[in-house]
Amino acid sequence: MKIEYQTGTLTLSDIGPLNAANSSTFREEARAALREGVTNVNIDLSQTRQVDSSGLGALIALQKTVGARGGAIRILRPTPIVYQILELTRLHRVFEIVRD
Amino acid sequence: MNYTLICPTAVPAVPALSRQRPLVLAPFLGRTVLEHALAGLAANGAKVVRLLAEDRLPEIQAVVGAGQAWGLQVVFLSPREGAEILSREVPPGESVMTLDHLPQAPERPLWDSYQGWYEAQLALLPAFAAQRVGMREVTPGVFADLRSQIAGDASLVAPCWIGSGVFVGSQAVVGPGSIIEDGSYLDSGAEIVQSIVGPQTYVGSVTEIRGSFAWGSELLHLESGSLAQVTDRFLLSEMRVRSGFAAGLAGIIRGIGNRGTAPDALANPPGLARAGGRFLL
Hints:
heterodimer; A: 5-stranded mixed β-sheet; 5 strands; B: alpha/beta; Spore Coat Polysaccharide Biosynthesis Protein SpsA, Chain A; 2 domains
């Protein structure tokens, strides 16, 4: 996973599948990357072609953590398959999503 | 009039429709495309239909049989016989047709796109509902089978079709433009808009299906053709079909106070028991 910082915003990209096998790793790495001063998080899902409830749970947990700091997370460029799962679970109404 | 009906195997524009079953057995308003086609040919006066089908032929034969259901004599052609018929001039009193449209709606191509396949169903929905035994129009444009069970606080928005054995849970929303095929289960709060839910499909609580075809664990976006495989059974999955003995045993176990696991609850959901087999509208 690629981690970048820019004036209070953390951007996570090159994220593979977000499923039961690796969502814990994603959650831990993302939390570790939340330095002081980071309020918003961009999650680039353009390389993610599989997501399940564990992966969605990791995104929601991160949303809660960032929300407690007064920030928000944005999902960037989700693949069509990921967007379908976000829509199925109605999370497209919870997260700010930038499709292109 | 005798017909030779050519069944396409796979069509590049709609590959997902032939993943689970042969293309001509794709669900279409309570039946398969092929069954509707045979009904249409019978209504046009056909007596003998020669079928040229190659993809998963035994599955097609199991659905069609010898054609008695439509008062037809259906004969399956071998590829050699099919090639012979196609190479000669069509004699008077015979017709050759490719199953890329239904006889009931020749102006509507079925396989040009997923959206076209969906729109053909919407266009034929009132006519096919009128012909189907057990289907009734509960409010204008809302058709539900008598053997479906619909929670009193569910919303049905025209046009929509709710097939036989379908359960629509509390506060679910169906429509506009939605087709729920036979034996499917929409859990409470599920919302199905401009979509098709295929046969025997469980749609989880508070999910939203929009502009899509959901069948088993597959979710196909009708416009883009994107196909997502849903791995969480509580969101979208195929309903388990169990043997009579297993289902009976599970019923006995539930009867003595064990509510069972989630899959058991799906096989005989608590809502169905409360409904007592009544139509709840």
